[in-house]
Design goal:
The protein is an alpha+beta fold. It is 28% helix and 30% strand. The protein contains 5 helices and 24 strands. The strands form 6 sheets. Strands 2, 16, 17, 18, 19, 20 and 21 form a 7-stranded antiparallel beta sheet that branches. It has a 6-stranded antiparallel beta barrel with strand order 3-11-14-13-12-15. A hairpin with a 4-residue loop joins β19 and β20. α3 runs antiparallel to α4.
Length: 400
């Protein structure tokens, strides 16, 4: 898991910082601010996500591949009402197709009249024929009766075709079955991978939810059931509330950095990692518009935000308590803390008691962290040893 690997790299870096700092400033132990450690991945208090009001449901409109579209009456982003025209087929082609079927129907009806006339003529002639000739007339009449039956069946089939062609012509203009917003129009009928796509997709109006995107480094920071606040970008007094109903890790999204930007995150960080959509079901949609851009943030209510740090900074004592190496007046002390909720995705613990965001703690290296050890907030880079001078007489190809 990328997040786990990232956290491991952070811990390795922290260990390296501790060891090099101790050797660079009178063995002082390097300590880091708890609030800064909290912001190494995950979601920090006050982080905001860019979001958009979307519809819970979409309607897909297909087009007939055998017909030519004469006019497209809408564009992407248009709001449409129910029964509003979307596009129209080429009626000239449809009219020609109908006229052809009507002509074929007329020819079939004419053949039926012809068969009936021939049968009557043969029956009249048979009545005056000799006994030896009547058999021949009977055979001819039966053959024509078979042809007549087939023509009658063909007429019924052709009448059905004519009715359908008339309905298609009458419905040459395709209308919107629901009210909403035109989300996409696909002229080719396929995506870049050749997968079939609907011609028009309509986001239905009415049942709204808010869609945000979560960066790879914040993976696990938002989970289903989390309470969220939705804020207007133009009017700070407009605030809505809701709950996360889905975090879709199966469908990563692409786009520019603003589509998933968390306030305070760098563009490079956001564009170089995956982004995942999450959806918030609103407690109320009053005042929201489909397609409206908003901000989202975790709703912590009136509760004080608890410090949460990586489990690697914790020391698990034999008596079952948990402690950290914390700074107190420039020196280290082992301080007992009370743990809260554990985030398995980021391997972090909420700290209920014993630490604040303004406290400083050290990575618990057993050789360096001792009660009363001096502390430092400054990282001192390790000294680089000068390369040994080449042996006198040494040559590139060997020994002189």
């Amino acid at each position: 898991m990328k997040c786990k690997k990232w956290m491991s790299l952070l811990l390795c870096a922290a260990m390296a910082l501790t060891m090099t700092a101790c050797s660079g400033k009178e063995n002082a132990v390097y300590v880091q601010r708890v609030g800064d450690l909290m912001n190494m991945g995950g979601i920090a208090p006050g982080d905001r996500f860019a979001g958009m009001v979307v519809s819970e449901n979409v309607t897909e409109i297909e087009k007939d591949s055998d017909k030519t579209i004469a006019e497209l009456k809408v564009r992407e982003g248009d709001d449409v009402k129910k029964d509003q025209p979307l596009f129209a087929y080429d009626t000239e082609e449809l009219q020609l197709a109908l006229e052809k079927k009507l002509l074929e129907l007329e020819q079939l009806n004419a053949s039926i009249e012809n068969f009936n006339r021939q049968i009557k003529d043969l029956e009249r002639e048979r009545s005056g024929a000799s006994s030896s000739e009547k058999l021949q007339y009977t055979v001819q009449i039966q053959s024509l009766q078979v042809d007549l039956k087939e023509a009658e069946l063909n007429v019924k089939a052709k009448e059905t075709e004519v009715t359908k062609a008339q309905e298609i012509l009458e419905n040459a203009v395709v209308v919107a079955p629901v009210a909403g917003r035109i989300r996409s129009i696909n002229e080719s009928g396929t995506d870049q991978n050749g997968k079939a796509l609907p011609y028009i997709v309509i986001q239905q109006a009415g049942a709204y939810r808010v869609k945000g995107t979560l960066g790879e480094l914040q993976r696990g920071g938002i989970v289903e059931g989390d309470k969220m606040r939705i804020l207007s970008r133009t009017d700070s007094s407009q605030v809505w509330t809701g709950s996360v109903t889905l975090v879709d890790y199966e469908s990563p999204v692409t786009g520019d950095q603003n589509s998933a930007m968390i306030m305070g995150s760098s563009p490079d960080e956001m564009t170089s990692s995956s982004k995942y959509p999450f959806y918030v079901e609103l407690d109320s949609t009053e005042g929201l518009l489909l397609g409206q851009h908003v901000y989202l943030e975790l709703d912590t209510g009136d509760q004080e935000t608890k410090a949460g740090i990586s489990s690697a900074f914790l020391v698990y004592e034999e008596d079952g308590t948990t402690s950290v190496w914390a700074e107190s007046k420039g020196k280290l002390e082992k301080r007992t803390v009370t743990l809260g909720e554990y985030n398995s995705m980021n391997d972090t613990y909420e700290i209920l008691e014993g630490l604040t965001e303004e406290d400083y703690i050290a990575f618990p290296d057993p050789e360096l962290c001792q009660p009363g050890a001096p502390t430092t907030h400054e990282y001192v880079a390790p000294e680089t040893e000068a390369p040994e001078a080449p042996m006198e007489g040494a040559m590139e190809g060997g020994v002189a």
